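Bug report (template v2)

What were you trying to do?
Predict the complex of my protein with phenylalanine.

What happened?
Run completed; filing so the output is reviewed.

Input:
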Amino acid sequence: MSAPNKSYDPVEVEALKPEEIDRAREQALAAVAAAGDLDELREVKSAHAGDRSPLALANREIGALPPHAKAEAGKRVGQARGAVGKALKIRQEELERERDERVLVEEAVDVTLPYDRTPAGARHPLTTLSERIEDVFTAMGYEVAEGPEVEAEWFNFDALNLGPDHPARTMQDTFFVESPAGEQGGADPESGSGVVLRTHTSPVQIRSLLERELPVYVICPGRVYRTDELDATHTPVFSQVELLAVDEGLTMADLRGTLDHMVRTLFGEGLATRLRPSYFPFTEPSAELDMVCFVCRGDSVHNPERPCRTCSSEGWIELGGCGMVNPRVLRACGVDPERYSGFAFGFGIERMLMFRHSVEDMRDMVEGDARFTRPFGMEI
Ligand code: PHE
């Protein structure tokens, strides 16, 4: 600011010359008009209307003018500042309105869009089917029993009347597990037997009889292993459900009634079952359980024009093996066969899933593709 000076001529003060004031005013108005958004306008405001703006500096010079010159210079600067202030206010309102309109468009929420774009998964049908079978039996008072998948040979074979020289022992395509001593299938010093991946769920029968109080009613679901190649009808890892009842006075009629009830519950009323003689070392007598095809109900056998894919027009579907528990198995578990008798049934879940739901390729069940599992729904 210049010092007060009596002989001071306002015309000589550069900042207060009318052209300078007009120029500052025009520049300010042009900058206000050019401000494209509120941030730019804030900068324009500080540059052209702030404390260090040309018009504010000019305003400060007025104090140094002689009294007669103050009025005119004050009016000129005041009008210029007023015009700039007004333009700023108008532009501010305009830009705020534009911003509000833009926000309304850009941040609009479309309430009709799907709220969740992550596709829902599904439980594997093998799990649901296996649980459904468990439900049939737990409703009859059975307990669910489980055992290890890496199993001692004694449980998987010996205790089930499949001694070391039994021909049926080699019929089961067994995966042997290297014993801690390093020999393949070598003797485990504690149990006196080697270690295998269990080839069936029957070792859980033995474990249940050894661990539980009699009578025993258990249903044993689980994964089992055999040295099969993976193809449309075989997989080296599959699932079985095993049923075991040991009580006083159980007969083949109890087995038959129990299985009939299971077939009714899983496949519907009015489907006949039959037992075909068979052989398993751990049951005596042994049988295969068949049920009448739940799709064609046996009609396709006499009706060549209407073949049935589910039973290959055989009329019957094989469900699994069963029989009365061999007294030798009971004895191996410390159960007196003179007092107790029992029945057992075992079957594969993959096979049941195949004919129950027309799954044609077993590989679909193990590949883990959600497109396979999802159509089975979310049955819990
Ligand atoms: N464990 C037999 C198998 O895997 C099935 C079975 C179980 C047969 C119980 C009879 C009784 O093939």
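What did the reviewer find?
Strands lie at 143-144, 150-152, 176-177, 195-197, 216-225, 237-248, 273-280, 283-292, 316-325, 340-348. The chain has two domains: 10-106, 125-149+198-376.
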